[in-house]
Amino acid sequence: MRRLYVYATGVFWLLVTAGAIVGHWAPGTPGHAPATERLITLAELTRHARPDDCWMAIRGAVHDVGAYLPEHPSQPSVVVPWCGRNATEAYETKGRGRPHSPQADELLTRYRIGRLAGEQP
Ligand code: HEM
């Protein structure tokens, strides 16, 4: 009986340890930025400054939002000047002191293509 108890305890801790290791290394776990994410320089960002080829750096991440711009609910003149630039402040304020909604934040993640070199994510 005692042997069974020792055996069961051993198996239990083995599973706990394995779970912790897998949990730590699993890709996509919150808090673990994908190791393969592309690093984009400011020079490269600057080359995508057209409405039909529009990259924006927001909160340290670069987003290719060209395909989304025709859907954006404001006048193009509000967003287009931010193509090819660090647009964090413009995004945070919509140009007039009001933040975008959580839905907009969620939408933004779909266009993420990399990280701006030298910026914290
Ligand atoms: C960085 C430059 C940007 C500026 C200056 C800007 C500004 C604005 C303005 C003026 C509005 C309409 C008025 C309002 O709802 O208050 C708006 C709405 C919205 N924008 Fe932007 N925008 C920018 C980038 C983006 C990006 C990159 C996305 C997503 C990929 C986005 C998603 C939305 C959405 C979903 C709305 C509807 C309202 C909301 O959910 O907050 N915007 N934005």
Report on this structure:
By secondary structure, the chain is α/β, with parallel strands linked by helices. It folds into two domains: 32 residues; 78 residues, Cytochrome b5-like heme/steroid binding domain (Flavocytochrome B2, Chain A, domain 1), CATH 3.10.120.10. Helix content is 39%, strand content 17%. Strands 1, 2, 3, 4, 5 and 6 form a six-stranded mixed beta sheet that branches. The protein is elongated. It starts with a helix and ends in a 5-residue tail after the last strand. About 10% of the residues have low confidence. The structure holds protoporphyrin IX containing FE. The site of protoporphyrin IX containing FE (HEM) has 22 residues, from helix 3, helix 4 and helix 5.
Topology:
Elements lengths: L1 H24 L13 E2 L1 H5 L2 E2 L2 E6 L2 E4 L11 H4 L5 E2 L1 H6 L8 H8 L2 E5 L5
Parallel strand pairs: 1-6, 3-5
Antiparallel strand pairs: 2-3, 3-4, 4-6
Bound molecules: protoporphyrin IX containing FE.
The site of protoporphyrin IX containing FE has 22 residues, from helix 3, helix 4 and helix 5.
Structural features:
Flavocytochrome B2, Chain A, domain 1, 2 domains, alpha/beta, elongated, 5 helices, 121 residues, binds protoporphyrin IX containing FE
Number of strands: 6
Poorly predicted ranges: 21-32
Residue-averaged pLDDT, rounded? 83
- Tell me about the largest β-sheet: 6 strands, mixed
**CATH superfamily (homologous) name of the largest domain:** Cytochrome b5-like heme/steroid binding domain
What is the alpha-carbon Rg in Å? 22 Å
Number of domains: 2
Present as ligands are:
protoporphyrin IX containing FE
Give the CATH level 1 class of the largest domain: Alpha Beta
CATH architectural type of the largest domain: Roll
Measured distance between first and last alpha carbons: 54 Å
CATH topology of the largest domain: Flavocytochrome B2, Chain A, domain 1
Global shape: elongated
- Percentage of residues in helical conformation: 25-40%
The H-and-E topology, N to C, reads as HEHEEEHEHHE
Number of separate helices: 5
Strand content: 15-25%
By helix and strand content, what is the structural category?
alpha/beta
